[in-house]
Structures are given as C-alpha cells and as structure tokens.
C-alpha cells in the first residue's frame, strides 16, 4: 500500500441492543408499580445496575450504542508489517504513530496483532545461531567476568579474564582487581604464554580499553591495544555490538569459570585463589567437552599446538599504567585497593604511580621516591619502613619505665654507715 493511499474507513458504529425491548418494558412497568430495583433484577434475571439505568434513562436508554471494533484491512496490515521491520525498528508504538500520521487510525493493540508474525520472525532470527567452527590455531576468544569472592574473610570483587582457543577449547583464566587496558593486555599475554604460542586472530568485544569507536562497520582500536597486537603479531577482530553469541565460546567459558571454578569457594589469600585457578585449568582441559566430545588437551596436542605461531622473542611490557595520586595523611597511595607507602615528607603531595608487570614505582616529578614489589592481592598494604624514619621519635634511653620499682633504700648512700651511728650513741651515753 503506497503512502498516499488511505485505508478503508472503519465500520460505522453499530447499535447493539444490550437488553431486549420487552425486558425494558417489563422493568418500567414493575417500576411504576413501586417495585425496587433489587426486586425487579431478581424477578427478571438482569443486573441491578441495568434496572436502575433503564428506570432513570427513559426512551433513550432502551438500547446501548457500542462502536464497532477498529481493524486494519489487508493493505493496512501489510503496511504495518513493513514499518515494523524498517523505520520502526520493531516498535509497535512507533508503527501506530506513523500510521496515524498517514491517516490510518488503529490502536496499539490492533497493530501488535497485525505484526505478531513479523515479531516472531525477528525474534527467531535474533536467537538462531549458526555454530562457527574455526581451524586449528586460527582464533582465540577473550572476555571478562566478575565474581564476588571471599578472600581472607573479606568479600572482594574479582575480575576474571577468560581466554578460549576456539578449535581445541583449551581455557585460560586469570584474576585481576580491575578491567583496565593494562589488565586486558597483561592477561592476553599470559594466555599466549600459557598456550605456548599465538593464534592468527583475537576475537574481542567492544570494551572501551580495546575499541575506541565504530563508524559504519569500521572499528578503531585503542592505540595501546593496537600496538600490543602488532607486537604479538595477532589480528584483533571486534564482534558486532549486542551480539554476544558471536564469541559464544568465551561467553560460555566465563559462565563455566564462575559456576564451576569459583562458585561457593573462599580463599585464604589472593595467591591461594591464583593457585586454585591454575589447578582448575588443568582439570578443565582434561574434561570431555560437550561440543567436541574430546578432551581439550588431547585436541590441542594433536591438532592445534603446532599451528600456533611462536611467541615474540622480546615483547614490549604489557602493563605500563600511569596514575596520579595524592599521598594520604598515613603516607600511602591507593591503586586498585592495594596501598603502597610513600616517604612521609610527601604527605598531601601529588605523585605519579607507574605500575609495571612486577614493580610499582612512585615519582614526584622526575624524582623516584619509592619502589615496591607489585601486589595482586586486594586490600593489602605494601610498606617500606624507611618511609617512616623520623616520623616517630625513639624513646630516650634514660627514661625509666613507669611500672619499674624504685631501687632499694640504703643509708650508706647518704654518707654514713650504721656502725657510725651506733658509735655516736655509745659516746653520748657514757
């Protein structure tokens, strides 16, 4: 149906007799005899409100007029389906508004009935997935998941990076305290090292640390992640927005880690969590996978290991995080819930924190003021005692402990012995 055409007008309003005229006459007759509405309703088998309406309404109330249902003819339904699939983007309210603008009057419910088949078809297309199998060494899928874990008695949010080789289904998982670009790069580099090689492609989602923007299908990677991919000689491919099933292997892997490796567990330390994940990965690679019906370790060793490209001889550091912090009054700076000490002379000063793969270095301008071993455990304190030198005065060596007993009294300390006093007493007596 073209835009200029109009739908056939709805059927004219029909008069629908809700109560037979004979019944109406009986209601009025009984009313004139002084019967009440309740008695008339019981006698004639009609509702009491109906009796009251006819007793009050006179001749105009003998019939009730109800407008005929508004419907769309075949051309109107076709146009509604076409709008639903195109400009309305699956929104029946938008279709209704557009039809009204074109002179076609219909309710939202009427439009919903007209496009029900089209809605079902779209839903089926969204849910239907064609399983895409890749050749050995061709692709690795990556994604993050979050899980609240009890560590050393404190509940912490742990960010789990999960990497899955698409062919063999070997899995790698590593825990982090955040999902910054450095965490993505460090985790992926660890996965390459764990698998002993680099696949051709890396399937990623559209996380901000990885993808800056998409413009008409063209993906612009984050500069630091793009440099990382060049250094490791891997091609990053971003899946379409809102199409998580594109990387369904790692989506399933994230669920598997959260529901199998972590669920219901607590750990004495972050190191204990990392050790548990390392052992769990070995167990996961030895299970029979539900899709391939093979153990991932066997499938990897037989077909995929030799297809991975070798690791770079000297890869650039994957983590080179630069942060600015103000030194707190207790002489610490905070990085992802981990607190690192700084010389007390810099309290309330702004410093630059450089987080590397293994060390955390803190600068004030160009001056290196602190170096610490990087900690991965949440809510820990990394302290250098030298940073507090001079802040607390040492106790004086001449200061007596307050609870110490005084030395015993001795009269000889006053210059004379007891014998001297005894001699004086005998002389006076004689």
Automatic annotation (TrEMBL):
Q: What is this protein called?
A: Mobile element protein
Instruction: Output the Gene Ontology terms for molecular function.
Output: nucleic acid binding
List, alphabetically, the InterPro entries matched.
Integrase_cat-core, IstA-like_C, RNaseH-like_sf, RNaseH_sf
Under the heading SUPFAM superfamilies, the entry gives: Ribonuclease H-like (SSF53098)
**What's an example GO BP annotation here?**
DNA integration
Q: The Integrase catalytic domain covers which part of the protein?
A: 132-304
PROSITE patterns per the UniProt record, alphabetical? INTEGRASE
Species assigned in the record: Sandaracinus amylolyticus
Family according to the record: Belongs to the transposase IS21/IS408/IS1162 family.
